[in-house]
Amino acid sequence: MTAHRALGLSAVIAACSLTPLDHYDSQNGSSDIDAGDATSGEGAAPDVAQDALPLDDGGAPDVDAGPGAPWTRYSLDTSSAAGAPWTVTPLEQLWTGPSAPPPRGVVAAVQLVDFSRLLVITGDGTLYVQQDGGVWMSPMAITAAFPQITGPVDGITHIPYAFAVTLQPDAALVESLLLQKVPQYWYYQYLPNDQRVFERTGTTVDVPPPGAPEGTGKLLANFEILDLGNADAAVHFRRFDVYGDGNVYSFDAAATWTKTPLGAHPFWSGRAGAPALGSIRATYYDQGSTTLHVIGP
């Protein structure tokens, strides 16, 4: 395992910025669309266009993302002792109902922290959102939910309000979403009423080792963990990216990158039932139960 302080999304956390896109601007010189373009007119509020409509505004057909055997959800309580096993549950037992995602074909997922939402994106370009009580909203095409996105994505990550407000007490109650198709990214604000407000888009470049290959690597999945009560402020926010090269790249709020082979990572090493690299299609983290979920065959 190697650790190093380097440029990356972590630099924004260390600088107490609330938008991860400043990181990408520092890599590229500028983003394709400036954050100011998310407003309409001088001093106006963000546009409420198709990308900012509630998700239940018609939806898309409830389609299965392809044939094949149902996939699995692998789950680990990350607060468990070393060597504690993962649990395995078929997705078809977990995601049920007429508007639930199919039990396969998932490419990205994220569980929000500040309001109860699980966002799931499938390979056919459909977005599914689970609300309180396990109720799934009407699914819709990702190009309708996020019109600036023109195709499939590799991952979706977020910066919760719960962390942002520790840096800026008057921060708005939104979760910052970053959708990625390496090297492209799209940045949105996700509101408690399920509106999405587009901020900007751009491209990423590789972070110097041991940082992540954000410009050229194959991103498999990513997730975030908050530990706001920890005396070490560096671990108040940590993001983990799993890449196809077999490594887990992570950074913390002190802007320190760490690169660890998947099999040597504490969440995998010595744990029975841990998902192999080839089984990782998407991940999400349940902050309330301190549980990491991996979706895959």
Key descriptive features of the protein:
single chain, 297 residues, mainly beta, five-stranded antiparallel beta sheet, four-stranded antiparallel beta sheet, 17 strands, disordered N terminus
Share in β-strands: 25-35%
Task: Describe the strand arrangement of the main beta sheet, using strand numbers.
Answer: 1-15-14-13-12
* pLDDT < 50 stretches: 2-22, 24-63
Q: What is the percent of helical residues?
A: under 10%
Structural class: mainly beta
Give the arrangement of secondary structure elements.
Blueprint: E1 2-5, H1 9-14, H2 21-28, E2 72-77, E3 87-90, H3 91-94, E4 106-111, E5 118-122, E6 126-130, E7 140-141, H4 142-145, E8 155-159, H5 161-167, E9 175-181, E10 184-190, E11 196-203, E12 219-226, E13 237-243, E14 247-252, E15 256-261, E16 282-286, E17 291-296
Antiparallel strand pairs: 1-15, 2-3, 2-17, 4-5, 5-6, 6-7, 8-9, 9-10, 10-11, 12-13, 13-14, 14-15, 16-17
Task: Explain what the structure shows.
The structure is a single chain. The protein is mainly beta and 297 residues long. It contains five helices and 17 strands. The chain has helices at residues 9-14, 21-28, 91-94, 142-145, 161-167; strands at residues 2-5, 72-77, 87-90, 106-111, 118-122, 126-130, 140-141, 155-159, 175-181, 184-190, 196-203, 219-226, 237-243, 247-252, 256-261, 282-286, 291-296. The protein has a five-stranded antiparallel sheet with strand order 1-15-14-13-12. A hairpin with a 5-residue loop joins β10 and β11. The radius of gyration is 18 Å and the shape is globular. The model is unreliable at 2-22 and 24-63 (pLDDT under 50).
